[in-house]
Amino acid sequence: MKLNEYDIQFVKGVGEKKARLFNKLGVYSLENLVHYYPRKYLDQSSTVSVVDAPTDQAVSIRATMITPVRENRIRKGLTLYKCNFSDGETVIHVTIFNNEYLAKALRTYDEYILYGKVEKRFTDAVMSSPQIESIKTGMAIHPIYPATQNLNSKAIAKAVRGAFDKIGVFEDTLSDEIRKKYDLCTLDFALKEIHFPSCGENIEIARKRLIFEELLTLQLGLMLLKGKRSERNNHLIKADYTDEFYSLLPFEPTHAQKRCINDCICDMRSSHTMNRLIQGDVGSGKTAVAGAVIHTVIKNGYQAAMMAPTEILATQHYESFKRLFYGTPINLALLTGSTKASEKKKIKSQLIDGEIDFVIGTHALIQNDVEFANLGLVCTDEQHRFGVEQRADLAMKGNHPHLLVMSATPIPRTLGLIIYGELDISVLDELPPNRQEIRTDYVNSSYHERIYRFIKKALDNGRQAYIVCSLIDEGEGELLAAEEYAKTLCENEFCDYTLGLLHGKMKPKQKDEIMHRFASGEIQILVSTTVIEVGVDVPNATIMLIENADRFGLSQLHQLRGRVGRGKEKSYCILVSDNQSEQTKERLGVMKSTSNGFKIAEYDLKTRGPGDFFGKKQHGLPNLKIADMVEDIQTLNLCRKCAEEMLKTDRRLDNYPLLCDKINDMFKRTDY
Ligand code: ADP
Ligand code: MG
Fold first, then answer.
1. What is the pLDDT of residues 609-636, one digit of tens each?
2. pTM of the full predicted structure?
3. Ligand 1 pocket: which of 279, 281, 282, 284 to mutate (most atoms <8 Å of CB)?
4. CA–CA distance, 458 with 469 (Å, rounded to integer)
5. pLDDT confidence of residue 281
6. Atom 15 (ligand 1) nearest CA
7. Residues 124, 90: contact at Cβ < 8 Å?
8. Are strands 111-116 and 78-86 parallel, antiparallel or unpaired?
9. Nearest atom of ligand 1 to the alpha carbon of 284
10. Fewer Cβ atoms within 10 A, N terminus or C terminus of the chain?
């Protein structure tokens, strides 16, 4: 039986209606159900005596019923059942509300497990509506599942039991050899114990196996992806035109830029397709690297595509490449969600005809109906916003084009190797010269007046400023906060200046317009939520004021700070927070003390502050059900080794068909 093809509605006791509720939890198949793990457990296996029972939490008490049930009809619809139990020392007065079924089932002098809170009254104790279970089923560890409306944890547990009955014994995904080597229990044991543990230790043994399996699946998936992609080079680069590109640049490229560009050119001249990640801190000049590679690809007769996560960014890239390639025969176009339909149609047909050499756009680009005459290179900017699936989508365009991925999210090396498992990495580790260090200050809100004065002075000198005010998520409330704040500033402190407001709920057209006016210098202060986080480049902006800075992850703050310090002028980043906690002080202190994105990421990772890249799902990897990239980093490293060993002897995992199914399931696609 293929578990992933077996619909949940046919599990005993589920049916069509419940199946829909399960779907809400992301559970569609038997496979999903058995991997729908309990969030925690209710441990009724260890009981306490009433004397020792704390009164502020639920406990299990083993007790004998010593009086028959008395029925007490209070009014219509409310019947109380009362009876007494004893744990051998203390009498427990139990009240049951309205549960006739339970009351009738209780037998005097039988032993039960009572689970609930104990109230102590003199020498006696009271429990109101405890869970009462017979000694046989009561002495267990019960799974508690994340539930949804009309589908509670008990119903889920029942369905899981139903699934187990149906399946019988789980066939193992791993060989005995691997299980022995990495000290793992069988899959059958792991699944059964994770759902219905017979003791606390077994939960840990089961977790170990399931975490290993999940991370191994992830690793294998990424490695297979890489293996499939590095196919024969269909777009051989014969000549290197980088010198010609350098003459177009208004600056001399840094050594690091030249090295990264060279890595790419070498890849594309080799017998394999390029799969390369350029990892560089904010402001390190990734755009120029991409430009050089794109330029050479086009000069060799191929088309190139560049994909950005936001319209603002796509538009900005388009504008700067238009300027850069002005006077060259390179024909470029912008394709985003807000491109007019007629224009889109035209661009699409010109892409098929090969009239357009270079297209820049947002996700709209990966819609199926965009076709190319001869796509040689796909480049994605700020790639952490894209999933691996999207990366793969792009790579499937045309005839296996080269892939260049750019990311400013500094990720510690160990994790980088895993997250970008399918890519080769070049690090852009040098900032362009004459860049001044950004001065970072961390103050509380009593400094606002001084800060505003400081901003005004900069504006009077012709500079521009960003003010970021934002909660972690872009909700309605936050939007109001930004609007309100902009309005107050507009009417008071900055009434003589031009302000613009930018937030995520604006139409792309509006956003573009505001961004344009800011880039052209017309808008002097941009009040914004975090939409400016990625990639926006306005060298004349020299102040970044961030309100409630403690609400951001450090990596995010670092990205925001990277919006300034892009020109010749001295730049400032001011972090405002009234949060007095030691943790906040330390975290914001780190921002002040270093401008090295990788160091900041290491710290962020260690302390796991809110909004870190894993919490915010900025890594673009499939969702994990039981493993945690940070907590389970050691297992992750083991799995990496294990995956490498497996693929060395069995390149396509022919000996592991079950594992292959899991990989396909995890990555939701079979056509990488
Ligand atoms: P990021 O790596 O964050 O994408 P950008 O590519 O936007 O950085 O570059 C940041 C700024 O630095 C831009 O204004 C760009 O023109 C400038 N720049 C890039 N490379 C150099 C260089 N070698 N010398 C001087 N300025 C450069
Ligand atoms: Mg950039």
1. 433 444 444 455 677 888 877 678 789 8
2. 0.66
3. 284
4. 20
5. 83
6. 285
7. yes
8. unpaired
9. 2
10. N
